[in-house]
Amino acid sequence: YQKQGIVLLKSVISKNWIKILKEGIKKNFDNPSKYKCVYEKSKGIELFYDDYCNWQRIFEYKEFLFNSRIASIASQLMNSKKVNLFHEHVLIKEIGAEKKTPWHQDQSYYCVNGKQNISFWCPLDIIKKNTCPEYISKSHKWTKQFLPTKFFGNSYEQKDNEFEHIPDIEKNRENFLIKSWKVSPGDAVVFNFSTVHGAPENKSKNRR
Predict the structure, then answer these.
(1) Which of helix, strand or coil describes residue 208?
(2) How far apart are CA 193 and CA 117, in angstroms?
(3) For residues 117 and 195, is the Cβ–Cβ distance under 8 A?
(4) What predicted TM-score, i.e. pTM, was given to this entire model?
């Protein structure tokens, strides 16, 4: 994690916690928050959508965050004695979702400085390698901060010289060490806030 800015942890979340998280997600989207956003629709059906900052009202999320092994794992990987929760973020691509998640780094959105930070991507379904999010190894060590990208595809207006536009990674994939994996419920892909990443469309014919 420290060297690459990204690591795959296999089978670190129990089946019981996966079950609890799925119950929380159903509760979440049966009654979404004001932050829910839909990025793709077809014939009135939502295909790519998300919600976040719900852990205080979704009991299942809070239980997982505070009572599973996740905080202890975060502490070990960050070499930190203390872990602060920033937020949880649930993203769903249904069968037929064709929209890609643009390349970006999370730290630009978060208004957080420093390198002692960590994100966990925890799939609740079997995800093949061709649908798994993709991460650029060692990009957390780049000295650049990139202007946040809207998931609708446009960058935010540049008003601060601290940020620059992210390079066209998709057209120059051969220039980067891009990592992705086949993953299953119980696995976690763990990455630094500054690690540049994106995600393909949902290429599965039978799984969200």
Answers:
(1) coil
(2) 6
(3) no
(4) 0.93
Rounded-to-integer distance, Cα 34 and Cα 39, Å: 15
Looking up tokens 């008003």 gives 159
Structure-token pair, residue 146 = 């990139």
Residues 6+ apart with CB under 8 A from 57: 33
Alpha-carbon span 88 to 76, nearest angstrom: 20
Q: How far apart are the C-alpha atoms of 190 and 208, rounded to whole Å?
A: 21
Up-side HSE of residue 59: CA atoms within 13 Å toward CB? 1
* Helix (H), strand (E), coil (C) string for 122-174: CCCCCECCCCCCEEECCHHHCCCEECCECCCCCECCCCCCCEECCCCCHHHHH
Per-residue pLDDT reduced to its tens digit, 151-185: 766 666 666 777 888 899 999 999 999 999 999 99
Q: Is 198 helix (H, G, I), strand (E, B) or coil?
A: strand
**pLDDT surpasses 80 at 49:** yes
The mean per-residue pLDDT over the stretch 52-73 comes to 98
Q: Can you tell me the distance from the alpha carbon of 69 to that of 208, in angstroms, rounded to the nearest whole number? A: 26
Report the distance separating Cα 136 and Cα 195, nearest Å. 7
**Do residues 138 and 4 touch, judged by C-beta distance below 8 A?**
yes
Chain position carrying tokens 């998640």:
101
Between CA 105 and CA 144 the distance in angstroms is: 10
Beta bridge partners of 90: 51
